[in-house]
């Protein structure tokens, strides 16, 4: 008996057509699903592009979120966006901002970028020679200066990420300066602590900071790993990951934090169970071990979420026990959020009940100091993005709690900037708050916009980096696009009332609605001139377009 003939779809997807495979016409089709291709359909033209003979038919390698979304046309529907990259973009602030801009105005939406991921890179006006050899730590600065920089670190950073034995540090510092011993791995800790001390004591980078960063990295890079990683190596890499998260690019931080996580696993430090032959256990007291593993996982988890890249997990993916509480230390507050963050993994899709209960759990926590409050805000922002991405509802009472936390977070951001504490969340949280307030789009949320924009402006003026200028310009653009859309809506309401009034009293008519398209153009032109990243905005098309047919943040198309 003959088997039924398989039907070929009238419209095949592009990968199947190029590879001459059968396509069922679905999105994604079964062939692309089985072979791991990026399934998509041509919409602009049906003309086939000639391809060279012998073209390879292997599956395309996985690409990061930024590369996948940047190649999508502005006309891509929301369902295609969500279906193609749902898992990768679930927690990404970059994807959230991009979709927000596309919903308000697809033509002038900001490009895909991790705006305000941190305060920006610290660069000397005259860069040092990149090929120069790293200096020994004792030749970079004096012992007294090293102690003062270390004191800054232990006053501002150690209460937040407390994993270094302070008495032992200063003891080793004295020994290093007062003896003739050769450079060793602990130099990476001495230089790493001092470099972060520079970061938290000087708003602008200094030559000393650059040399300290080079020295710390050279100590780590030159170390030969002949067995399980030592505690000193793990602490050195953790300090490097912290410094990169505050000053460098997302991908550099992700690579460093992933390396750190692999070293943690190789050391056996992550396991609470007794060590086996294949899983060594580094010598460290339990509380310090939990703090070190927790901070490493905290940085890797959130960096992976932001970039839409894989986070490093262990074979036995068990969470470290919470560290003990200490007076003047709030590391336990931040690491207490880690199980919640891991539960938000993009591969673990949550329903409305799960997300709302998780939100309530985070909002109910007590966080005292500004860096800890900012970590709490960042977690709430991630949950809110998930709720709105999945088109779920949130009660008015819960919304009020979220807005109260946002207000507290903005205040903490201003205090961090004033005290020269450039934590990465001081830039990231206010920018994301602006975006979430626009998406919430209620009177109570929009009334907080002036404070959020004022906070972002203060941070930009204090840390005048290209990163902050671009972030502030993007926030201004999003608010302006939202404002222009509202003005168009007001004009429509005015026209509708005018028609109603004419029907009731043909003699008396309301005045015509104002022409908003010509207003505020000078302000927008100045904005584009001030921020080079906005040069792609078509002013004439923006100011004269008919915005009445566009969808407004989840409204009907």
The domain tally reads 2
Strand content: under 5%
In whole angstroms, the N-to-C terminal distance is 50 Å
State the secondary-structure class: mainly alpha
- Counted by DSSP, the helix tally is 23
Question: What's the rounded overall pLDDT mean?
Answer: 79
How does the major sheet shape up? none
Overall, the morphology is: globular
Which characteristics define this entry?
about 550 residues, mainly alpha, 2 domains, 23 helices, globular, disordered C terminus
Provide an overview of this structure.
This protein has 557 residues and is mainly α. It has 2 domains: 137-332, no CATH class; 349-549, no CATH class. It contains 23 helices and no strands. The protein has helices at 14-19, 30-35, 65-70, 78-89, 93-104, 143-156, 166-178, 186-199, 207-221, 231-247, 250-267, 286-307, 331-335, 338-343, 352-363, 370-389, 396-418, 425-440, 443-446, 449-462, 466-504, 521-530, 539-544.
Topology:
Blueprint: H1 14-19, H2 30-35, H3 65-70, H4 78-89, H5 93-104, H6 143-156, H7 166-178, H8 186-199, H9 207-221, H10 231-247, H11 250-267, H12 286-307, H13 331-335, H14 338-343, H15 352-363, H16 370-389, H17 396-418, H18 425-440, H19 443-446, H20 449-462, H21 466-504, H22 521-530, H23 539-544
Helix pairs in contact: 5-18, 6-7, 6-8, 7-8, 8-9, 8-10, 9-10, 10-11, 10-12, 11-12, 15-16, 16-17, 16-18, 17-18, 17-20, 18-20, 18-21, 20-21, 21-22
